[in-house]
Write a structure and sequence with these properties.
Blueprint: H1 2-8, H2 12-50, H3 59-76, H4 78-81, H5 86-106, H6 112-143, H7 146-156, H8 161-179, H9 181-195, H10 200-218, H11 226-234, H12 246-261, H13 282-302, H14 307-327, H15 329-342, H16 346-353, H17 361-365, H18 369-388, H19 390-401, H20 404-414, H21 420-430, H22 436-448, H23 458-466, H24 473-477, H25 480-497
Helix pairs in contact: 2-5, 3-5, 3-18, 5-6, 5-18, 6-13, 6-14, 6-18, 7-9, 8-9, 8-10, 8-12, 9-10, 9-23, 10-12, 11-21, 12-25, 13-14, 15-16, 18-21, 19-21, 20-22, 22-25
């Protein structure tokens, strides 16, 4: 009401002067839009004349490529703009495929674009369901306070800063192959923030160590990262063959960790005594998750079923556990209440007063939907650019113009700037003719190359938010040469140990 009242008191001359400015802005926007539309239609016309397969050198291809680049610029500015990364790539995916389909239709081809899009959607749907089950299990373990109990145990033991530096790094390296590198990094960072609240330097170095360890650990397991999962589901590398990367991944972690350990402060951390009691079903959830992974691996390796079939079957395991926990909820709470009263555990009694039955759809709802939708946008964007022909040209430049080793090392360096998901999906879409050793090499480099910059991996970006002010782009950049040394050492180790595969 106040704004309307004040605007009515403005002199007429001032209102008249403002109106042309507004019209001028509208006119500029309209002219810009009309220019883009005219360029698009002219692009369609030229595409119709030349045929859809040569769109890489026509405006349709240039426009699609520009849309993807602009969308990815918004993705890299996520922390600055506070806009989720899925938004720009979802829009870009739709625009690119509308451009592709329209260009194909105007050249008389109404089937190939549709078939290519369905192929991309099938690949995405398998990965979506696979990741959804894995995220649901991880969220269920978190809801059952398994990770809180682990953190509390580590904090209560009174380890030194140097011991915690190595414990969190080693745990990140060995947990990430099962619980993905992002979840592992967040868990270990929570421990650092708890015990190192009086030592900012320790938190900064510990976060760098965790990012490197989590990315390195995720590189030798199909479950450690989305990129390794894509490689496994594509059938390029078998499940057991990933373990050939264990020693190279360990070298990638240990080289920078050993050097950074000399910079860890000597003072002891503040000891904390806050015990955490896991909820009913926590250990059984872990057991069922391991059974789910076993089901997926056996079905994929011996029956040649998509791994997602075993994962979805494993989701049923968790649902039946949830059903049992609901049926026995009152009896289980009563039993725990008797134990808490006998031991005078007031914290457990307070928790039991607010306890609710386990519902499997709650951890499913807390899945990283922004990441899943971002992956959809990336898969379709890269698929659209591949249909246009850009991936074939890049493949020819990298894998025919260069040697495969140089190309795969470059892929890893690129993943430090551009997220490794589109990089690896692009390589898989190109399908270069490489030896088995080279496929393992690009799996390794794409997995660990992002550690060289804090923005090069999901773990690094997440920890910059969780440890804001302690772990930054510049603090990580100071140790980039050391991390790059580990990157080079891991490549050399792989090429030496697995020389028979090249």
């Amino acid at each position: 009401m106040t704004e309307n009242h004040s605007s009515e008191k403005l002199p007429i001359r001032r209102c008249c002067r403002r109106a042309p400015d507004q019209y001028r802005v509208v006119r500029k926007v309209a002219l810009t839009l009309s220019f883009i539309v005219s360029m698009t239609f002219s692009a369609f016309a030229s595409a119709a004349e030349s045929g859809v397969r040569s769109l890489t050198h026509h405006p349709v291809g240039y426009i699609a490529l520009a849309i993807f680049v602009i969308a990815y610029v918004f993705v890299t500015l996520e922390e600055k703009l506070h806009m989720r990364k899925s938004k720009p790539v979802l829009l870009a995916a739709g625009l690119i495929w509308f451009l592709v389909a329209a260009a194909a239709a105007m050249s008389g081809d109404t089937e190939s674009a549709n078939a290519a899009l369905k192929h991309n959607l099938l690949e995405y749907s398998e990965l979506l369901l696979f990741l959804l089950v894995a995220m649901t299990y991880i969220n269920a373990m978190e809801e059952r306070q398994l990770f809180d109990a682990l953190r509390s145990w580590l904090v209560s033991k009174g380890f030194s800063y140097l011991s915690l530096f190595w414990i969190t790094g080693v745990l990140a390296f060995f947990i990430s192959p099962i619980a993905d590198n992002l979840t592992t990094a967040l868990l270990m960072c929570a421990v650092l923030m708890k015990v190192g609240e009086n030592s900012p330097r320790f938190i900064g170095l510990g976060c760098i160590n965790i990012v490197v360890a989590a990315n390195a650990g995720g590189a030798f397991s199909p479950f450690g990262d989305i990129t390794t999962l894509m490689v496994w589901q594509k059938g390029v590398v078998e499940f057991t063959e990933f373990f050939r990367l264990f020693i190279p991944s360990a070298v990638n972690y240990l080289v920078p960790a050993i050097i950074m350990s000399f910079a860890i402060p000597n003072e002891p951390p503040k000891k904390a005594t806050e015990p955490v009691i896991m909820k009913r079903g926590a250990r059984r959830t872990v057991a069922l998750f391991l059974l789910t992974i076993t089901t997926a691996v056996l079905g994929h390796n011996f029956l040649h079923l998509p791994a997602v079939v075993g994962m979805m079957m494993g989701l049923a395991y968790l649902q039946f556990l949830g059903y049992y926990l609901r049926l026995s909820f009152k009896r289980g709470v009563a039993r725990e209440r008797v134990w808490a009263e006998n031991h005078q555990n007031t914290r457990l009694l307070k928790r039991l007063d607010t306890a609710v039955p386990f519902d499997v759809f709650n951890p499913m709802a807390r899945a990283e939907w922004d990441t899943l939708l971002f992956f959809y946008g990336i898969v379709l964007c890269v698929g659209g650019l591949g249909y246009i022909g850009y991936l074939a040209e890049v493949s020819q430049i990298l894998y025919e113009g260069w040697n495969a080793t140089g190309a795969n090392i470059t892929i890893g360096l690129m993943s430090a700037i551009v997220d490794n998901i589109p990089v690896m999906f692009a390589v898989l879409s190109m399908g270069p003719d490489m030896s088995h050793g080279q496929w393992l090499l690009v799996t390794l480099t794409a997995g660990v190359g992002g550690s060289m910059l804090s923005i090069g991996s999901a773990a690094g970006v997440a920890l910059m938010g969780q440890a804001r002010g302690y772990y930054t782009l510049m603090s990580h950049l100071r140790w980039t040469p050391v991390i790059a040394l580990g990157y080079a050492a891991s490549i050399a180790t792989h090429m030496w140990l697995n020389a028979n595969l090249f």
